[in-house]
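All the exercises in this workshop are built on plain-text protein records. A record pairs a protein's sequence with a compact description of its fold. The structure tokens are whole numbers drawn from a learned vocabulary of backbone shapes. Once this layout is familiar, the rest of the handout is easier to follow. An example says more than a description, so a record of this kind follows.
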Amino acid sequence: MSTQREPEWHKSSYSAANGSCVEVAEGKSVLVRDTQNRESGHLSAGASEWTALLAAVRGR
């Protein structure tokens, strides 16, 4: 029997002080969710897709 751990979420370092931010949990997949709408679920991406997204956002 395998036990599944809850993801360890952390807020973006670019988050605003008013709580308008996203949270990320890193593991086999990278999970992303809206802090103000946690109950709405999350997006999931593989590590290579997440790296590509970050590179694109950074303009590299």
